[in-house]
């Protein structure tokens, strides 16, 4: 019964993954990345529950800190990009051409 | 163990890095720095060599383990054979610096950086007895030479440098694959991925047929070294690399890098895979003899003097690979001696070509002729070097060839006779080269005003000529150094 | 004490070489440079005489200088020896060498770069002495190649002309073909007998010989190839006539007296072994006989004074080889000895003539020199009588013995004898022709030829008559520095024969020379015995035939004015004459069959094999790699993000697989 939480974590992660792939605007992609992060965090806490060690819960705190920094940098990059290209849609930004 | 070894070993590396900090436009300083560096390298090499108590035994100089990194250890050890090649390397460094003293390029610091880096990598390769250490330095050697040819070379340099790099790297990858395989087996046995003599011997690789472990590993190593030596079918990078390389590149390539392939055979392949060597001996002997004849005939028809010398290298290395694979101690010693002799005569030829090139900016044979009238000193020294390459008795070239032919004769007479035809073929192309450059009539107007070589330019040629004659008359000078080692290797192999 | 002398004998010429080389920049003139070489050779000569007398009484002298290498039991040492064989050759080299050096001082007096000439001369003397005094194959081979190298340097002395360089290259490469044989033969001997020392091969182990027959036969034949290369036998003789491009004293020394005899010397050194193999001896005998005949057939139509002598040398070398082939090694060496004197004499006379006629070499342009160059004429006559084999002169004794040895050879003796006799008659013929055309007959007016350096003589039409008159006014006898050696050599050509008198002429003093040599070489054996009577009859008949031959030549060239008879005969035997004068087209044959095909093979290797096959593999690998790369490029997703999806999916699969493998081990 407690395995449903694993499914929840997996569901969150998959949702975030599909979002980063199929979403067209940069902020949504960033949000979906955070979603993936959330799923992984939930997974790590579940490890703590199953092994009985509290180390994983500590790890989650570190992960949150790291994701906060990452979001900060990501947002500033988006703003810089917006200033340059005047758009946030990936279709209109062609820096790496195929 | 030598306490200061690590410092001594890293001197060329530090010197190379120091070029990055040298003043950019002060040509004099940079060249002087290079000269001092080469003298320092030579002196410490000599000192390290003198400190060898017994040339026949591998003396460990430094060993450090890396337990976290798959438990691999680096061992640096030296014996007579590696010591001799170390000396040759340092000596050729000095020769290169002096012979190319008048080079004019904007990227002078890069030039010397690469040369010193190359020297360091070769030293590392020679001194490592752990297979991984050897492999790492082996790969590192490719990079400076690649850049040297690619930046300072002739017109077709990109093609030549890529070809050289790709071909030799391909062989090395093969070697790496079999090394990984051996590491996995070693891990099962002793719990560590390390590879050196004892470990590989304890693996007890079986040999039955072509698809057995020892045979496949033997062939992967052999192909890697064949590409480097180079042996006949795998030689196509050598002529292009030599033609496009700057003189320093050619000298170091012909003088020492080719020898490292042979060193790899002597150090690793022959002691470690004796059954495979015995079984495949005849094939390799025939390849060697073919290389001798092929190199000579293709050299004869060349119109570019540097390509001619490149093919002559293939011819000489054919003798050496024959000597190494004949399981006869006399021939193996002859092969080692011929390595040294080739490392003296061929750089001499390249230096001669360099002096011609700096004066006329062409390497086509039909542009020269009759130079003995305007450049007598050059003609004489060039002749002595040519005679050494032709294996005239009383020069160093004869000793090795004779020993190889005599040793191989006992193993396989046909191969020995085929190789002996090199005695007839080598003067054909070498005298053609000499006649078209130094003798004959002074046809071209530009040749009539050429200046003879100065004392500075003559010095490397004089030293090489002296060695040519002295080693030819008294080969024992060098022979005693690797006697014991070869006996050890060959007895293990037999 | 004698060991020190022995070590010094090759050293003096070496010092002369070094001294002359270093002093080249001082531009020594011919007297100074020549004096250095001459003095060194003469000092060596004195040392040789002293040591020889010791050897004659006490046996061989040895001195080991240093150890070169060892291989098991085989010791490769730098080791000199003066044994019976070395005595003879060393006396020849140093004695005749000093005489020729002295002569060259006069000959080269208007040349440039004399220092270089005398340096190379000394280098040659050094190498030849190494060869002669070598106690083992190694030192002999060092000297062997050394003389090859000096020969190359001296033939191509006037290197500005490509022809001289090509002749030098040809000589070196032909020699190298022989060296191929010598090296392999040497190795064979070393492996069988476990030694390379000649002192030990003097008395070889018969059990070893019997046990290793095939190997020894092959090795001996290879050594014969080596001898053929150096001694200009068929098929490798083609370098010797071209070698005449060098200065004439060089031709005298090397290509007449000393270097070319190295092949016979080698055969004598190993005579004690090869005597056991009749197959090898037959090969040697026929090689010598064919060479002798072929060369003399070519010589009868040559017009260049030096080329006639060159072919004559090849022919006489054939005689020496023939003698070795019938087992009479001491006789062969005796002919080497006498030939050295009279051939050197003939060449120096030719040099004197060339010098006197201002570098003219066509015998049809010379003539009537008997009055203008008397000393040269008379010394030349002595040499001519010696080579023709007139009784009383040295050539007679050695040649006669060879003829009788050939006749009595079991099996093919009669054929060998006929070939040798025919050659002797031809020799007499062409030598008389040369004597007559150079010295006796008044010259006709023919086109000028190139002189020995290759400079075309300046030839103005209306100056033609003046030129000839001018030349003949200026033809003069050579200075005494050149005629003194001629006289000395003439005396030796006369007297040397008396060292080898046959039995019938003197019982006590017969065959002094051969007896001395046979202390080393294999004794002549297995021949049928000729009665004294038959021998005298043979001698008389041979001499009469030779006199007839000489008379025929005299008749054709002297008695008939202005070569009318000669032109008649020439047009009657047109084809034969052209075969002979074009040297049987052997050079062209080699060019066509060996050199050109090899060159074409080289081109083929480069153009086809190198570019397509060897490089082809490399290009194939490159193409396959790039093709697969571009193929995979087509499977790339259009959007970057899809790529990320694929990566994630793939990674998941891999990690799951590994994880499962670890768990379910």
In short:
The complex is a heterotrimer of chains A (98), B (494) and C (665). Chain B has 494 residues and is mainly alpha-helical.
- The helix/strand order of chain A is HHH
Interface with most residues? B-C, 52 and 47 residues
Number of helices of chain A: 3
Q: Supply the number of structural domains of chain A.
A: 1
Largest β-sheet summary of chain B? 2 strands, antiparallel
Uncertain regions of chain B: pLDDT < 50 for 5+ in a row?
A: none
Radius of gyration of chain B over all CA atoms, rounded = 22 Å
| Uncertain regions spanning at least 5 consecutive residues of chain A | none
CATH top level label of chain A: Mainly Alpha
Shape of chain B: globular
Distance between the termini of chain A: 48 Å
Q: Give the assembly state of these chains.
A: heterotrimer
Topology-level CATH name of chain A? Helix Hairpins
| Strand arrangement, major sheet of chain B | 1-2
Write structural notes for this entry.
- The complex is a heterotrimer of chains A (98), B (494) and C (665).
- Chain A has 98 residues and is an all-alpha fold.
- Chain A has helices spanning 4-22, 26-51, 55-85.
- Chain A has one domain (4-85): Helix Hairpins.
- Chain A contains 3 helices and no strands.
- The model of chain A has no long low-confidence stretch (mean pLDDT 90).
- Chain B has a domain at 283-494.
- Chain B contains 18 helices and 2 strands.
- Chain B has a two-stranded antiparallel sheet.
- In chain B, helix 2 (27-50) runs parallel beside helix 4 (108-127) and helix 13 runs antiparallel to helix 14.
- Chain C is mainly alpha-helical and 665 residues long.
- Chain C folds into 3 domains: 1-135; 136-451 and 471-581, no CATH class; 590-663, no CATH class.
- Chain C has helices at residues 2-22, 30-58, 84-107, 114-133, 137-155, 162-193, 198-201, 206-211, 213-230, 239-242, 248-257, 262-269, 271-274, 278-299, 305-325, 329-356, 369-372, 374-388, 394-407, 413-440, 464-474, 480-495, 512-517, 532-559, 564-572, 574-581, 586-634, 640-663; strands spanning 61-71, 74-82.
- In chain C, strands 1-2 form a two-stranded antiparallel sheet.
- Chain C starts with a helix and ends with a helix.
- The model of chain C is unreliable at 445-473 (pLDDT under 50).
- The interface between B and C is large, with 52 and 47 residues.
């Amino acid at each position: 019964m407690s395995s449903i939480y694993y499914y929840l974590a997996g569901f969150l992660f998959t949702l975030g993954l599909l979002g980063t792939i199929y979403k067209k605007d940069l902020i949504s992609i960033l949000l979906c990345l955070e979603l993936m992060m959330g799923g992984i965090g939930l997974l790590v806490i579940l490890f703590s529950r199953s092994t009985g060690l509290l180390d994983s819960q500590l790890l989650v705190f570190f992960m949150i800190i790291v994701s906060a920094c990452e979001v900060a940098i990501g947002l500033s990059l988006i703003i810089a990009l917006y200033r340059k290209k005047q758009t946030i849609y990936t279709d209109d930004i062609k820096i790496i051409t195929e | 163990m030598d306490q200061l070894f690590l410092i001594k070993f890293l001197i060329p590396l530090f010197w190379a890095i120091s070029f990055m900090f040298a003043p950019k436009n002060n040509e004099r300083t940079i060249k002087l720095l290079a000269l001092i560096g080469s003298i320092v390298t030579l002196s410490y090499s000599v000192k390290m060599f003198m400190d060898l108590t017994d040339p026949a035994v591998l003396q460990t100089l430094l060993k450090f383990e890396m337990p976290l990194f798959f438990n691999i250890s680096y061992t640096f050890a030296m014996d007579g054979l590696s010591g001799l090649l170390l000396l040759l390397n340092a000596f050729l460094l000095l020769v290169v610096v002096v012979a190319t003293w008048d080079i004019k390029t904007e990227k002078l610091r890069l030039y010397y950086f690469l040369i010193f880096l190359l020297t360091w990598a070769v030293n590392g390769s020679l001194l490592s007895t752990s297979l991984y250490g050897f492999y790492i330095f082996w790969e590192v050697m490719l990079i400076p030479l690649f850049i040297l040819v690619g930046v300072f070379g002739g017109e077709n340099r990109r093609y030549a440098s890529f070809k050289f790099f790709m071909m030799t790297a391909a062989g090395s990858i093969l070697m790496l694959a079999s090394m990984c395989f051996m590491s996995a087996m070693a891990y099962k046995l002793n719990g560590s991925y390390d590879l050196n003599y004892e470990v590989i011997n304890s693996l007890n690789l079986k040999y039955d047929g072509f698809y057995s472990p020892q045979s496949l590993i033997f062939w992967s190593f052999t192909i890697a070294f064949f590409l480097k030596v180079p042996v006949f079918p795998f030689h196509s990078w050598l002529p292009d690399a030599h033609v496009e390389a700057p003189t320093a590149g050619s000298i170091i390539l012909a003088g020492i890098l080719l020898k490292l392939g042979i060193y790899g055979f002597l150090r690793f392949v022959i002691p470690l895979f004796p059954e495979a060597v015995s079984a495949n001996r005849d094939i390799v002997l025939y390849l060697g003899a073919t290389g001798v004849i092929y190199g000579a005939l293709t050299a004869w028809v060349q119109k570019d003097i540097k390509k001619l010398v490149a093919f002559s290298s293939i011819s000489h290395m054919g003798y050496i690979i024959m000597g190494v694979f004949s399981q006869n101690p006399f021939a193996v010693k002859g092969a080692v001696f011929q390595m040294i002799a080739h490392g003296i005569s061929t750089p001499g030829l390249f230096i001669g070509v360099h002096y011609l090139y700096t004066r006329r900016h062409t390497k086509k044979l039909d542009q020269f002729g009759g130079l003995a009238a305007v450049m007598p000193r050059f003609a004489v020294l060039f002749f002595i070097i040519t005679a050494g390459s032709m294996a005239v008795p009383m020069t160093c070239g004869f000793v090795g060839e004779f020993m190889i032919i005599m040793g191989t004769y006992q193993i396989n007479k046909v191969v020995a006779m085929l190789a002996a035809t090199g005695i007839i073929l080598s003067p054909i192309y070498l005298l053609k080269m000499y006649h078209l450059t130094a003798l004959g009539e002074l046809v071209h107007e530009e040749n009539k005003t050429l200046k003879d070589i100065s004392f500075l330019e003559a010095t490397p040629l004089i030293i090489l000529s002296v060695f040519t004659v002295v080693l030819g008359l008294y080969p024992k000078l060098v022979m005693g150094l690797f006697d014991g080692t070869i006996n050890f290797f060959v007895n293990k192999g037999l | 004490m004698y060991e020190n002398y022995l070590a010094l004998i090759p050293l003096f010429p070496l010092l002369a070489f070094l001294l002359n080389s270093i002093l080249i920049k001082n531009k020594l003139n011919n007297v100074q440079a020549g004096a250095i070489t001459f003095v060194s050779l003469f000092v060596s000569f004195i040392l040789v005489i002293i040591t020889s007398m010791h050897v004659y009484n006490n046996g061989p002298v040895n001195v080991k200088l240093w150890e070169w290498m060892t291989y098991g039991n085989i010791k490769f040492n730098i080791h000199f020896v003066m044994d019976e064989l070395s005595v003879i050759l060393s006396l020849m080299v140093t004695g005749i060498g000093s005489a020729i050096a002295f002569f060259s001082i006069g000959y080269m007096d208007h040349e440039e770069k004399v220092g270089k000439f005398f340096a190379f001369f000394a280098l040659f003397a050094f190498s030849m002495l190494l060869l002669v005094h070598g106690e083992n194959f190694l030192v002999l081979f060092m000297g062997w190649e050394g003389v090859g190298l000096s020969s190359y340097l001296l033939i191509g002395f006037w290197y500005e002309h490509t022809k001289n360089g090509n002749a030098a290259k040809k000589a070196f490469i032909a020699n190298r073909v022989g060296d191929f044989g010598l090296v392999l033969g040497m190795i064979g001997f070393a492996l069988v007998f476990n030694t390379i020392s000649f002192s030990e091969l003097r008395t070889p182990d018969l059990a070893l010989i019997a046990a290793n027959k095939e190997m020894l036969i092959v090795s001996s034949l290879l050594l014969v190839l080596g001898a053929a290369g150096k001694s200009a036998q068929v098929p490798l003789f083609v370098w010797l006539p071209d070698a005449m491009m060098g200065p004439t004293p060089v031709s005298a020394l090397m290509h007449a007296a000393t270097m070319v005899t190295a092949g016979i010397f080698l055969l004598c050194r190993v005579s004690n072994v090869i005597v056991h193999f009749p197959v090898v001896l037959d090969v040697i005998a026929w090689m010598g006989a064919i060479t002798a005949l072929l060369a003399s057939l070519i010589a009868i139509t040559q017009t260049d004074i030096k080329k006639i002598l060159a072919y004559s040398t090849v022919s006489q070398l054939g005689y020496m080889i023939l003698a070795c082939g019938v087992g009479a090694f001491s006789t062969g060496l005796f002919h080497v000895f006498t030939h050295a004197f009279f051939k050197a004499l003939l060449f120096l006379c030719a040099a004197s003539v060339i010098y006197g006629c201002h570098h003219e070499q066509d015998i049809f342009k010379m003539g009537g020199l008997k009055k203008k160059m008397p000393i040269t004429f008379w010394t030349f006559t002595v040499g001519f009588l010696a080579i023709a084999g007139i009784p009383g002169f040295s050539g007679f004794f050695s040649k006669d013995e060879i003829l009788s040895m050939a006749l009595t050879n079991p099996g093919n003796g009669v054929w060998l004898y006929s070939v040798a006799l025919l050659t002797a008659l031809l020799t007499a013929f062409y030598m008389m022709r040369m004597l007559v055309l150079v010295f006796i007959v008044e010259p006709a007016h023919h086109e000028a030829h190139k002189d020995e350096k290759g400079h075309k003589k300046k030839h103005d039409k209306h100056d033609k008559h003046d030129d000839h008159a001018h030349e003949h006014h200026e033809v003069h006898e050579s200075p005494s520095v050149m005629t003194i050696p001629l006289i000395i050599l003439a005396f030796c050509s006369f007297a040397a024969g008396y060292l080898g008198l046959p039995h019938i002429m003197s019982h006590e003093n017969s065959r002094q020379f051969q007896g001395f040599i046979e202390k080393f070489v294999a004794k002549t054996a297995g021949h049928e015995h000729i009665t004294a009577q038959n021998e005298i009859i043979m001698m008389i008949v041979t001499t009469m035939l030779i006199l007839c031959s000489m008379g025929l030549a005299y008749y054709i060239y002297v008695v008939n004015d202005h070569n009318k008879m000669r032109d008649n005969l020439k047009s009657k035997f047109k084809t034969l004459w052209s075969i002979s004068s074009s040297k049987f087209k052997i050079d062209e044959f080699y060019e066509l069959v060996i050199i050109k095909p090899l060159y074409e093979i080289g081109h083929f290797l480069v153009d086809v094999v190198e570019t397509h096959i060897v490089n082809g593999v490399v290009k194939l690998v490159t193409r396959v790699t790039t093709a697969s790369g571009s193929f995979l490029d087509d499977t790339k997703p259009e959007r970057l993000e899809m790529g990320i999806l694929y990566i994630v999916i793939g990674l998941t699969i891999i990690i799951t697989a590994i994880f499962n493998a670890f768990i379910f081990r």
